[in-house]
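Per reviewer request, we include the raw input and output of the structure prediction for the construct analysed in the revised manuscript.
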Amino acid sequence: MAAVGIPLKRSWIFVSKCRLLRKSIQLLSHRKLSRSTSRLSSVNLREEYHKLKAQTDAQPIGIDDVNPQAIFANNELDLGDVDVYGFDYDYTLASYKDSMHYLLYNLGREALVTKHKYPKEILSLPYDPKFAVRGLHYDVQKGLLMKIDSFHNIQPGTVYRGCTPVSKPETLALYGGTHVPVDNMNSFHGTNHRMHQLMDLFALPEMTLLSNVIQHFIERNIPYDPEYVFYDVRGAVQGVHSSGELHRNIMESPDIYIEKEQEVAELLQWLAAAGKKLFLITNSGFPFVDKGMAYMLGPDWCDLFDVIVTKARKPKFFQPTRPFRVYDKQQGTQAWDRVSQLIKGKIYQEGNISELVSMTNWSGAKVLYFGDHVYSDLADPTLKLGWRTGAIIPELESEIETVNSLQFKKSLSWMLALQGLIETMQIHEDTESQQILDEWLRERDELRVLTKTVFNRQFGSVFRTYHNPTYFSRRLSRFADIYTSSIVNLLKYSLTYTFYPRRTALPHEIKF
C-alpha cells in the first residue's frame, strides 16, 4: 500500500505565545517603562488595558488547526531506519469502546460489594466517564485525587476528595504548599506506596469507582480509612482482570466492546509487504488476544507476525528473569522444554527481553515499539535497549479538537496578551495601580479556569496544567519518541518519512 507523509502543524502554543506577547510588549515598549522614568496613572493603565483588548479582538487568531490524526515527535525519528515494528495489544492494536469502561466499573463495583462486603447502596453509584483523566495522582494516605505538573506541583482547583473539590487553602494546609516531595512521587514504573498514578485508560473506571465510594461514605458520615478503601477498590477492580472475568465478557461479545478497525489489518499487511519484521508483546493471554484479533483481522492474523508473546508480565518482561515457554493454542497448555529459538507461527508466553534480542538480533534504533502505557510499555525499551518508541494516546484526538476550537483559541490569545500586560505593568507600585493589577490577575485566573474546563471540568487537559506540562506529559516526552491517537495514523506516512521535533525557544533565547 502506498502511503504519503503529511507535514505536521507548527507548535501553535509556542507560536501564539510569541506573537501575542510580542504584540502586548511592543504596544508599550515605546514608553521604555522603568521605575525611574515612568509613572502611568491608574486611568492610563485602564486605557492600555482597553487598547490591548481591542487590538487582540481585532487581530485574526492566526493559529493553524492541528491535525488530530497526525503523529507528533518528541525526538527525531527516521522510519527509513526502522526494520522491526513491535506492538502491544490493549489500546494499541485493539481499541475499546466506552462500553468496556462501563463493564469494568460495574464488575469492580459488584466485586466490592460481594467480596469485600461494602454497603449494597454502592451498587447504585453510576459511572461518570467524564470525571477523571489519565495521568492523575492519587494520594493513598490522604485519599485525594489530583493533577501534578512536571515540577511536582499540585495544580490548584484539581484536588478532589471523593467527588468534592478541595479548596486551595485546605490543599496548602495539607501539603504545606503545592509541592510534592520527590520521595512521595512515583518510582520508575509509576508505583509508590504514597502516590499512585493513573497511567492507562483501564485506570479511569477504577479511580471513578474509588471517588464515588469515598463520596458515598462522606455523605453518609461513614468513618473510613482512605488507605484501606484504596486497596479494597484496587483489589476489587484488579481481581476482575486477574480472574479473567473482564476478558470473558469481552470475548463473549467482542462487537460490543472492541472497535473493528479495518485499517489495523491494512497497516500490518502494508508493513509485512514492505519486508518489515513484526512482533506482538502483550500481558494479555492468548485466548483473549486471539478472540479480539480474529474479530478485527480474521482467523489467520497470526501469520502477519514473526514473533507473538503473550502473558509477558511487562514491565518484568524487560528484566532477565523468566525464560520463554511455548503455548499450545489447540490444547491451551504450555510446553516444558526450553525455548532456544523463536519460530514464526508459534505462540510464546512470559520470557524476557534479553532472550528476545539474542534470538532475533532485533536491537537498537532499528526497532520501533508501540504501546499505550508510558511506563510498562515504553520506559525500559527506550532507556535500556535504545529501541525507538511510540505512544498511543487515544484521548489526544479529542484534546486537539478542543485546541482547534475558536472558543479556546480566543480565550488563550487574550489570556496570554493580558499576562504580557501584567508582566509589563507590574513595576507600578502605587496603591491604585496595584488594585488594577489585582483585577487583571483575577481576570487572568478566570481565563485559566476557562481554558482548563473546556477539556475536563474537574481536571482539565491531560497534557498541561495552567501553563506547565503535566507530570504525565513530562514522562511521555521522555519515554516516547513519537506519539499519536491511533496506531492506524501511521498509514498516513511513508516508510521513509522522518519525524522532526519542533524546536521551541528556551526562556533565555527570546525576548518577549
